[in-house]
Amino acid sequence: MYCGERFEPDALTVDHVQPRIRGGDRSGGNLVTACGACNARKGASPLAHFLRDDIVARTHFFALAAKHVWPRILRSVADELDRLPGQR
Ligand SMILES: [Zn+2]
Question: Domain tally for the chain?
Fold first, then answer.
């Protein structure tokens, strides 16, 4: 989802777009796959912070997530990104 590379399924981790602690659920529209390297770079950062700091991840996320992430979650990530200082 973030680097845009392709991996074997066992090299992928499941990432919650909206963290469970913030009300995200386990439905398909809140889950994306990320490779281990991207998941490690993202760490515990809020998604919007990670996307602000990583233009490659941001580009892939909005291109790929648009197809299957719930629209309300996508909107909230985009809104949060807009409100962050120092982006772009
Ligand atoms: Zn990756």
Answer: 1
One-letter amino acid of 42: K
Domain that holds residue 44: 9-83
Return the pLDDT at 49.
93
Can you give the pTM of this predicted structure?
A: 0.85
User: Tokens 């760490």 belong to which residue?
Assistant: 43
CA of 80 to the centre of ligand 1 (A): 22
Q: For residue 75, is it within any domain?
A: yes
- Pick the closest to residue 75 from 62, 88, 58, 60 (CA basis): 62
Q: How far is the CA of 53 from the centre of ligand 1 (A)?
A: 15
The partner residues of 36 in beta bridges, in order of sequence, read none
CA of 43 to the centre of ligand 1 (A): 13
Expressed in angstroms and rounded, the spacing between residue 21 Cα and the centre of ligand 1 is 23
Q: Which residues have CB atoms below 5 A from the ion given as ligand 1?
A: 2-3, 35, 38
Q: Is residue 3 part of a domain?
A: no
Q: What is the pLDDT of residues 6-33, one digit of tens each?
A: 999 999 999 999 888 888 899 999 999 9
